[in-house]
Amino acid sequence: MQAQLLAWQDAFHRNLPRQRRITKRTLGLIGRLPRLFRGGARLHMGRIWTDSAYEKRRRRVLSTRLP
Amino acid sequence: MGKSDLTSTKKVIVELHGHVKSLMLLAEELEPENESYISLHAELKHALDHLMRAHGVEWEMVQPPNDVDSETYVSKQYGKAFSHLYRAFFDVADWAGIILREHIIATFKPFSPEAISEVFPEYYKKIRPQLEKINTDIARFRERKDIGREENVLPEVERYNSVLQSLIETRASLEAKIPSLVEYDRKNWIRRAGDILIGVLSGIAIGLIVYLITHWKS
């Protein structure tokens, strides 16, 4: 199907696309095109957790025995 | 769903959003690397979309799709917005819980369990069991696919907020105890060094006595 710009009423009841995983590639893209990522200062500067780094950190913290 | 039911759902959505926002502000402030966890923004984005869809039909700007009854459609959209916010809350609660736990581990790491229990006796009795429970509880809620009824959610959210609040207080009281822990470990080190020195000197003295006794006559 060819990409097309829908009238707002036609787009209204469609579901938004699922968010893709945040990967190192995403961080690279932010570094190259920061003007497209303006949701906040941290996002704009690429200071965000990738999904895999966050999961790794989460597993490490939860598996570390509390003193 | 009647109009009053929908009003209560809307109020729950507003309050839930406030809790999510409050935890996001806290997590961003405490995050040691100043990094943000934006995956949870997806839930907020979807919640906003469902709210807009509800408003559009409520204000008769658009018709619901496939001849669905307007009231049913609006109610369903509010329900979906609520579900996304509910998931956002547990995502951000998990993030904040991880940061706080990481901080507590790092703060206590240099000190012996003996020093901790001596200086901070409530840690092993009360705080540590609570710490062990909170992250596993949050993980269990995040994995749960079914979303509870709106009226059950706010007490649940309040309960998690109070546990997170106690973690924040623990973190603050830990920092206040650091000088006492350092002092305890220092005194303990001096005492242990003294014990070792006494042991060594006693050994030498006994050796000397034995030597003198065995070589007395010769």
Question: How do the strands and helices of this protein lay out in sequence?
Answer:
The complex is a heterodimer of chains A (67) and B (218).
Chain A lengths: L7 H4 L12 H9 L8 H4 L6 H13 L4
Chain B lengths: L2 H28 L10 H18 L11 H39 L4 H7 L1 H23 L6 H66 L3
Short description:
The complex is a heterodimer of chains A (67) and B (218). Chain A is mainly alpha-helical and 67 residues long. Chain A contains four helices and no strands.
Can you put this structure into words, describing what you see?
The complex is a heterodimer of chains A (about 70) and B (about 220). Chain A is mainly α and about 70 residues long. Chain A has a domain at about 20-65. Helix content of chain A is about 45%, strand content about 0%. Chain A has 4 helices and no strands. Chain A has helices at about 10, 25-30, 40-45, 50-65. The radius of gyration of chain A is 18 Å and the shape is elongated. Chain A starts with 7 loop residues before the first helix and ends with a helix. The mean pLDDT of chain A is about 85. Chain B is mostly helical and about 220 residues long. Chain B has one domain (about 5-215). Chain B has helices spanning about 5-30, 40-60, 70-110, 115-120, 120-145, 150-215. In chain B, helix 4 (about 115-120) crosses helix 5. Chain B is rod-shaped, with a radius of gyration of 29 Å. The model of chain B has no long low-confidence stretch (mean pLDDT about 85). Chains A and B meet through helix 4 of A and helix 2, helix 3 and helix 5 of B.
